[in-house]
Amino acid sequence: xxxxxxxxxxxxxxxxxxxxxxxxxxxxxxxxxxxxxxxxxxxxxxxxxxxxxxxxxxxxxxxxxxxxxxxxxxxxxxxxxxxxxxxxxxxxxxxx
Length: 96
What we know:
Layout: E1 2-3, H1 27-38, H2 47-82, E2 91-92
Helix pairs in contact: 1-2
């Protein structure tokens, strides 16, 4: 006689509520992107480069959490699909 306890878990929409990426670490990357956009023209310095840097950072903060949540939901589902509760292993009673 088999005894098995099943629990099905379905992951719905994932949400990233607290996104804390240290964007200051990437300042050199943002500066390089801004320099390419500005083509190192003298009139495209400081204020314009800062505006470009800020726009890039804002785009990351505004878009990455949703993209991360969308990407992580299937991963979470894959984890719970193979997870087993302790004692949920199929037991077979032997008749002697």
